[in-house]
Amino acid sequence: MSGYIFAFEKLKAWQLAKDLAIRIYKYTKEFPEEERFGLVSQLRRAGISVASNLAEGSARQSKKDQAHFSQLAYSSLVEVVCQLKIASELGYLSTEEYEVLRKQTGKLSYMINALQASQKKP
What is the DSSP secondary structure assignment for residue 34, as one 8-state letter? Predict the structure, then answer.
């Protein structure tokens, strides 16, 4: 592992978003094969998008640009929550898996909103 740490790697929100994406990958391995190009693909892309937008935003110079990418991350997070609800109701996630993911998305929602609020301050 390299000794250099990027700014986004220090963000607690990014760390939680990365963990969420990894958990989504693990849980979706058990989804039905017919969902491989449907819900599995959508959920994985949205999960990665949360972490990726937080990372990209951290590299932006202006607070306005940073806040824009935080908003994109939040939007992707809402997409994840929607897709998790559908997956749960289809029986693709156990109650325990769903609750773990919902708790994580709730905490991440708070963190992204707090980050964005700090980025909007003059």
Answer: G
